[in-house]
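Sequence in, structure out. First:
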Amino acid sequence: MKILLSGCNGGMGKTISSLVAERDDMEIVAGFDSSQSPDSPFTVYTELEDVQEKIDAIIDFSHFSAFDKIVDFAEDKKIPLVMATTGLSQTDEDRLKELSKSIPVFRTANMSIGVNVLLGLVSQAEKMLQGFDIEIIEKHHNKKVDAPSGTALMLANAINESAAEKFTFTYGREGTSAKRQDKELGIHAVRGGTIAGEHTVLYAGDDENIEIKHTATSKKVFAKGAVEAARYIAVQKNGLYDMKKMLGL
């Protein structure tokens, strides 16, 4: 299986490259990035129209600013796409849905298996913890550009989908008029050091608190998920897929 890796020179791209190099069922035959890499074991292109290799699937773990280029290329060449980049707009998400009518598209804001189990847990908790105040706290490294994380938004949306009454999202708080409102869900972003990713969902009730937490200790959990997603999406029919479908959750 032949992979085009978008964002190959970034931290996640290098981690994915290392994982694929250990496998015998796939290889990265080309990369796409804004800069060349002299020590890359495969050709790195700065323009997608220059790609000559046969590609079975694309893994995009780059920057949301490259979204249109990747999607245009996948659509034109009819290549299955794993879109793992975060920070996409609603317009971008809508375009992926439209794209999935013509090619297989795998889309998730978090490639970790554990995080996707967490999504199921918070959905169940919302049904059983009526009246509890809910806060989501996410922590990432100091180089992450988007906030809140795509995973934090996934968690918030999963809670809302299970809620009898929808929550209003509040992104951080400040000032002297920041008292919590009814049906408010707080989402808070922490940035520092080399934190790979940590998400805590806090349920605060009268005299008792419950926390559901997932911690990624390295980027390998996301890279592994992206590689498995590429193997999965390459043999699917046109449509929009995610981790829940792949894992049968």
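Second:
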Amino acid sequence: MAFQHPASTVVSRDEILKRIEAVCLSVVKSICQGTLPELSFSRHSAWNELKFDSIVSLNPNSPQILTKVRSDRKSSRKKFATMMRILQLIYRLIQENRFCTKRDIFYQYPDLYKYQSSIDRIVNDVACMLKVPRWDLHILATSKGLVGGDIQFTNEEGSYFDCSCSTAGIQIPAHSKDMQNISTSAKFVLVVEKDATFQKLMGEQFCQKMKPAILITGKGFPDNGTLLLLRQLWTIYHLPIFVLVDADPHGIEIMAVYKFGSMNLAYENQHLATPAIHWLGILPEDIYRLHIPQTALIPLDSKDVQKCQVLKARPYCRKEEVITTQVSFFFIRVRLI
């Protein structure tokens, strides 16, 4: 089977430019009227401000919950200026049909922010303010996911990639423009948490032994390119997708990002999350069922316990009985230890 990768654009190029112009015009009007300008967007920094119905998303019934970035406050002045600068950058990128990464932006202003994560959050906030998926703003995250097995595609320049010929996997592009004309005969997809596990399975010829199959890793928490590919394999091919992660709170959280999405990307999860994903394991009870020796286990520490508490409070854990049971299992195990 083969298909032309559908354009990821949800909002047209001209509409995005109009939205940026509207924001800038609003700022100019405020200054001309003698009022201090501010930027606002739907708040997406707390779980109780979001809704959950198979995926995590913004709550459309709570438009009054907004984050306001004011130009007159010391605490938000720098962020206001940075958001305006990023809007200018996005406008030029779209006009010139060019792309850049969040890392590129960080290196353009090395003295402005100490950490990459600060720029990442601001770019996410700009995308939320414009109500446009970040990849359609021509700002990409550095790709890190790998794919192997029965899947072929071409990039924007027309180069052909056959993942079945790779022994170590092929990097998943950050944007769908470089993953076009996808074809596959796979019967299922296996997603593994870590690159080490992916490489071990590739080395043991998992894809050949289970042919036709696709093997994917996001190398920990997945980037958008990996999430977009999985979403396409589900929506276009309706392939069963299984996730194999560590039997610890962090593994469960990574699985949840694939299945339900993340809080920071609540406005994009409808394009990224794959609710039909099956959690294959490793389940905590598998430790005993498979007689895994204690020497192969790492004790839970205080941070693991804290992560359990955080996970149990999330909306998908309150609704998903299996996940709630597994998270609760960790508390029981901690008490026994």
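Remark: Residues 172 and 229 are 8 Å apart (CA to CA).
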